[in-house]
Amino acid sequence: STPAAIAAGLATGARRGLLMKGGAVLEGFRDITAVAFDKTGTLTKGKPVVTDVLAFGRDQRAVLALAAALEQGSSHPLAVAILDRAKADKAPVPPVLAAKAIAGKGVEGSVGGVAAFLGSGQAAAERATLSEAQRFAIDSLNGAGKTVSVLLANGAVAGLIAMRDEPRPDAAAGIAALKGEGIRAVMLTGDNRRTAEAIAASLGIDARAELLPQDKQRIVGELQRQGLKVAKVGDGINDAPALAAADIGIAMGGGTDVALETADAAILHGRVMDVARMVRLSRAVMANIR
Ligand code: ADP
Ligand code: MG
């Protein structure tokens, strides 16, 4: 049976938008020594905005139209950014055949007879040869904290689409609060290393970049084998395995159905600071019990 103090702690959390699935989760927060954060939608707002469109061999609207065609069935934040921009620019979005998401890499499909791919520079480089100038452009955009998706058409680079996703306003303070509680914080992301490091530096957190979903899960396991009790915070898009592997999985942001099912706890108001608040709540409640 749940002691009254724990029930009261769970209720206090719930009133503040900190949902914990039961007394064992509340108790578990006391012992957390590391927090791994997903980047997109967790440390950042998850609402990237298209900042640059570079076109090769066709015009910008054609690049946006082809990219939007691939993304039309996707709920990935980068997909939403591209669809919004295509709409704003009144780029016509043609239908796509056999569209397929490749987790942590991008999307592919057939658009008007063209075999198209849109995804990370790394994934594009596995499928096509990028020119020196294209690689330089990607590096410069990444250095400015922008994520670049590369559009391939029949195996050739057709365009680069750069997007910026601003950090959540309390991200730096929320990370500092965890460090103040003696907790290690690390950012795990599928995004490019330069982009990740630009954002991580501004937030005061260590970053592990260019990760696939299974890599995020593996790193959670590595931290646990170092003797750390690990909480993983994510929106569940591509990181459900890592959420499930963590000692405590925390869903944040849009909170996809997957994430809420896999998670032990949820942050309803999108505040990074709420992770430290759950730890403090747990420590206060448990100190009163033992
Ligand atoms: P994060 O770890 O930041 O949540 P993801 O694992 O979702 O990032 O994606 C990793 C990278 O793969 C993205 O930065 C992007 O370059 C590429 N990518 C993944 N899905 C898409 C998509 N639907 N459209 C464009 N690019 C994508
Ligand atoms: Mg993600």
Automatic annotation (TrEMBL):
From-to range in the entire protein, with total length: 389 to 678 of 728
Subcellular localization(s) per the UniProt record: Cell membrane
Protein family (similarity comment): Belongs to the cation transport ATPase (P-type) (TC 3.A.3) family. Type IB subfamily.
Origin superkingdom: Bacteria
Protein name, per record: P-type Zn(2+) transporter
